[in-house]
From TrEMBL:
The gene is MET6. It comes from Orbilia blumenaviensis. The keyword Transferase applies. The lineage of its organism: Eukaryota, Fungi, Dikarya, Ascomycota, Pezizomycotina. One of its GO terms (molecular function) is 5-methyltetrahydropteroyltriglutamate-homocysteine S-methyltransferase activity. Pathway: Amino-acid biosynthesis; L-methionine biosynthesis via de novo pathway; L-methionine from L-homocysteine (MetE route): step 1/1. CDD domains: CIMS_C_terminal_like (cd03311), CIMS_N_terminal_like (cd03312). Its cofactor is Zn(2+). The active site is at 711 (proton donor). It is an enzyme of class 2 (transferase). This is 5-methyltetrahydropteroyltriglutamate--homocysteine S-methyltransferase. Zn(2+) 1 binds at residues 660, 673, 682, 743.
Length: 771
């Protein structure tokens, strides 16, 4: 028979219980015991959900109090000395690595002050993992408490024999890095690490784990030869343990065809898992490459998105595999862990039933794998009802008016090359802009938001709940705008902003004003640690029924003689920070967003706003995982959608863009091709040398590298900012340099913001005198 399996389940709980318990523990409001208890309750609940759904192979050790990669750092005793020296408890050490720890000395304990380990994006998802940070003389030792064994036993005691999940040794090392001042190449540590895996796997087998899921997602990347070879070294050992468990090696987020020569070295393993949602095309090649007795786990239920699986398509893929391998050698699975999907659709009480019928969250996806497996094993009749309902949902979605808007399609079809380009090249534009804007040298500005005070949040909540009227709320927002304008004028900034007090979130705010989007109330997904995000969902063709930001910007401009900067979130960021559609290519969705934003940009200009910033902080993370065609295509459509959204204005209107990022070495062409008149980027925490790329490539337009870190409450001094600008002038011409902070100021207090910006303006004035 064909079995069903889930590669991992979201940990937070239906009501983000884990987030709440963890943050309450951090705040000293609840005990460690109560946090541990919450973890245990959630694990039990999640196993039960999967069992009740009929899933055959249920994962364990997919739970984590912070991050699964961080758990492995601790599991292998690969914790840098700066954390171990304080004799913290294991859980305290885990959190110290995840988020840093600052604690005053007490009578019995010494003071602790340690920053966190680096946090990086997990492949191309919005999840972040903690990066293994390794030493030249790194040693590994299995921790005393073996979490995967503990959690396996915990499930077993509940009557559920699970398949433990561990991150494989090649991925663990490849995703790691040498600690600061160290020079080790992580993969060279493989021989030292393998004995720990042998011990771990043996212990799992002793505990009764028949199979273990060993994740090697790096197999979807372009790998150095040495790393590819490491698979043979690792799995010839781990697959041949005398008393070891059967291993299913799991890959996800892409195809592994380009690394197909690695597959023979893992062919003797019990099974291989591949992601057929992301890369269905790899199936034939994989079928030809799997070992003679090997089981193939086919990921046909999307672990990264919220759409109902199209059963008939999924069944077809599974049956193709069954034809070659036989039913006993095929497992129906989620494409990846369900970590990236929300807990359950059942919590959504406010969704329009029409669209709710198109969705499937983690709990529903667990049912899907079971149904597909049953359909293949017992035949369609066994699940006739489910198949019929699924087909009806799929048809309803494909033919819905919400998904198909003929006007939007017609407009897309009519786009011409000219729509992507500004009327004139930069030199002519900047000449026209100097006339309209009349700015001094070293113009100063901010990135958009000002402190989102508790008062702002209180009023927004009242408005959302209906406790105050729209007019009252609008009056409040206007008053906020008045205040930030007065402050900016007093400080002496040159290009002002309205401060974004009306925005709950930089994507949701726009989504709520566009056709084609829907919103959830509970669909949270973990971003890192206890932080969760609730991405809006793009369900259909996108259009803008009415202006979205013109009212606030126009009001703000009416209150000052200085130029007011309009503030929009760019098409790629709107797309990346939403759940996208899976029925049309992302480039199509970005283009629709771009057209909607283009109208907004033009309307802002008509309303007298002659500086418009289109933020694209997410443009870099959309960069495809592998070099080659997909990347080239991405660069093209990402750049085109930005240009399409901004090119509708006259030469005298200045287009700004902002990126929360400073290292452009590998994507300079993307940045440059956007053709934005002014770019503001993060730079204060990085080496000013990173700006050399702008000099080297003779970047012709204006740039404002952030002069101070807005993530910290620290107030930068006048001298400090002056020195920073001095460093920047090594790489940038005085006439192209803008002076601004690293990013928006919404998380800061006014007591920090005012003096910091005053120092910034004074530093700019110093250079105005000098040049
Ligand atoms: N304009 C936004 C702000 O100032 C930009 C935020 C971002 O780049 N993440 O908050
Ligand atoms: Zn930013």
């Amino acid at each position: 028979m064909v079995q069903s399996s889930v590669l991992g389940f979201p940990r937070m709980g239906a009501n983000r219980e884990l987030k709440k318990a963890t943050e309450s523990y951090w705040a000293g409001k609840s005990s460690v015991e109560s946090l541990l208890e919450t973890g245990k309750t959630l694990r039990a609940a999640h196993w039960k959900i999967q069992k009740d759904a009929g899933v055959d192979v249920i994962p364990s050790n997919d739970f984590s109090f912070y991050d699964q990669v961080l758990d492995h750092i601790q599991l292998f005793n690969a914790v840098p000395e700066r954390y171990t020296k304080y004799n913290l408890s294991a859980l305290e050490t885990l959190f110290a690595m995840g988020r840093g720890l600052q604690r005053k000395a007490t009578d019995t304990t010494e003071a602790v002050d340690v920053t966190s380990l680096e946090m990086v994006k997990w492949f191309d998802s919005n999840y972040h993992y903690v990066r293994p940070t390794l030493q030249d003389d790194q040693t590994f030792k299995l921790s005393e408490v073996v979490k995967p064994v503990e959690e396996f036993n915990e499930a077993k005691a509940l009557g559920i024999v699970t398949r433990p999940v561990v991150l494989g040794p090649v991925s663990f090392l490849h995703l790691g890095k040498a600690d600061r001042d160290q020079s080790v190449t992580p993969i060279d540590l493989l021989e030292k690490l393998l004995p720990v895996y042998e011990e771990l796997l043996t212990k799992l087998a002793e505990a009764g784990a028949e199979t273990v899921q060993i994740d090697e997602p790096v197999l979807v990347l372009d790998l150095p030869e040495k790393t590819k070879k490491a698979f043979a070294t690792a799995y010839s050992k781990l697959g041949a343990l005398a008393n070891g468990p059967k291993l299913v090696l799991a890959t996800y987020f892409g195809d592994i065809v380009h690394n197909i020569d690695v597959v023979p070295s893992i062919n003797h393993l019990y099974g291989l898992h591949v992601d057929l949602v992301r890369a269905p095309g790899q199936l034939q090649e994989i079928l030809g490459a799997v070992g003679e007795k090997q089981v193939l786990s086919v990921g046909v239920v999307d672990g990264r998105n919220i759409w109902k699986t199209n059963f008939s398509k999924a069944i077809e893929l599974v049956e193709t595999a069954v034809k070659t391998l036989g039913a006993d050698r095929v497992i129906v699975a989620t494409s990846s862990s369900l970590l990236h999907t929300p807990h359950t659709l059942a919590s959504e009480k406010k969704l329009d039933p029409e669209v709710a019928d198109w969705f499937s969250f983690a709990t529903e996806k667990a049912k899907e794998v079971a149904i597909i497996a049953k359909a293949v094993t017992e035949g369609a009749e066994a699940v006739a009802e489910e198949l019929k309902a699924n087909a009806a949902s799929v048809t309803a979605r494909a033919t819905s008016k919400r998904t198909n808007d003929a006007d939007v399609k017609a407009r897309q079809a009519a786009i011409t090359e000219a729509d992507y380009n500004r009327k004139s090249p930069f030199p002519e534009r900047i000449a026209a802009q100097s006339k309209t804007l009349n700015l001094p040298k070293f113009p100063t500005t901010t990135i958009g938001s000002f402190p989102q005070t508790s008062e702002i949040r209180i009023q927004r909540n009242k408005f959302t709940k209906g406790d105050i009227t729209a007019e009252e709320y609008e009056k409040f927002i206007e008053k906020e705008i008045d205040d930030v304008i007065a402050i900016q004028e007093e400080i002496g900034l040159d290009v002002l902003v309205h401060g974004e007090p009306e925005r709950n979130d930089m994507v949701q705010y726009f989504g709520e004003r566009l056709n084609g989007y829907v919103f959830t109330t509970h669909a949270w997904v973990q971003s890192y640690g206890s932080r969760c995000v609730r991405p809006p969902i793009i369900v259909g063709d996108i259009s803008r029924p009415a202006p979205m930001t013109v009212k606030e910007s126009k009001y703000a401009q009416s209150k000052t003689k200085k130029p007011m900067k309009g503030m929009l979130t760019g098409p790629v960021t709107c797309l990346r920070w939403s759940f996208p559609r899976d029925d049309v290519h992302q480039s199509v969705q970005a283009e629709q967003l771009a057209l909607a934003l283009r109208d907004e940009v033009v309307d802002l200009e008509k309303a007298g706003i002659y500086v418009i910033q289109v933020d694209e902080p997410a443009i870099r993370e959309g960069f495809p995982l592998r070099d080659g065609k997909e990347r080239d295509e991405y660069l093209k459509w990402a750049v085109n959608s930005f240009k399409l959204s901004t090119a509708g204005v006259e030469d005298g209107t200045q287009i700004h863009s902002h990126f929360c990022y400073s290292d452009f070495q590998d994507m300079f062409s993307l940045i440059s091709d956007l053709d934005a008149d002014v770019l503001s980027i993060e730079n204060s925490k990085s080496d000013a040398k990173l700006l050399n790329v702008f000099k080297k490539e003779e970047y012709p337009r204006h740039i404002g590298p952030g002069v101070y870190d807005i993530h910290s409450p620290r107030i930068p001094s006048y001298e400090e900012i002056k020195n920073r600008i001095e460093e920047m002038l090594v790489y940038l011409k005085p006439e192209q340099l803008w002076i601004d902070p690293d990013c928006g100021l919404k998380t800061r207090q006014w007591t920090e913001t005012k003096p910091a910006l005053t120092n910034l303006v004074n530093a700019a004035k110093f250079f105005r005198e000098k040049y």
